[in-house]
Amino acid sequence: QVQLVESGGGSVQAGGSLRLACAASGRTLSSYVMGWFRQAPGKERELVAAISRGGGDTYYADSVKGRFTISRDNAKNTVYLQMNSLKPEDTAVYYCGANTLGVRARERNYDYWGQGTQVTVSS
To answer: What are phi and psi of 71, to 5 degrees?
Structure first.
């Protein structure tokens, strides 16, 4: 069993930055591929970024490429999402999740989820 807790969300103006963190407990994070998803009001949850167990492989949605960076520190059992040049359309609840399949795993293949953290970007 893995418990995931996100932090770092908040309100920021367009063009600003935020760094989300996802701390894991229960089992070592290095056993899992980690992903960040987001869900805006009225929309489906979408994969934003994912990172392999060792960090050597990553995936980014086209909408965030060049602006967001996913990283992990397995020694600290934590995954990060650095978000720069934020836009109002990045406003959503951000969730981290863990899977054992890969960086392009579908949402239904994720085994564990955090409770989410709100990110609000104003224009």
So the answer is: -150, 170
Strand partners, 35: 50, 97
**56: Cβ–Cβ under 8 A, 6 or more apart, which residues?**
none
CA atoms within 13 A on the CB side of 34: 31
Phi, psi of 87 (to 5 degrees): -120, 155
- The span from the CA of 79 to the CA of 44, in Å, is 23
- Identify the bridge partners of residue 23 per DSSP, sorted by sequence position: 5, 78
Residue 107 in tokens: 């949402």
**46-102 per-position pLDDT tens digit:** 999 999 999 999 999 999 999 999 999 999 999 999 999 999 999 999 999 999 999
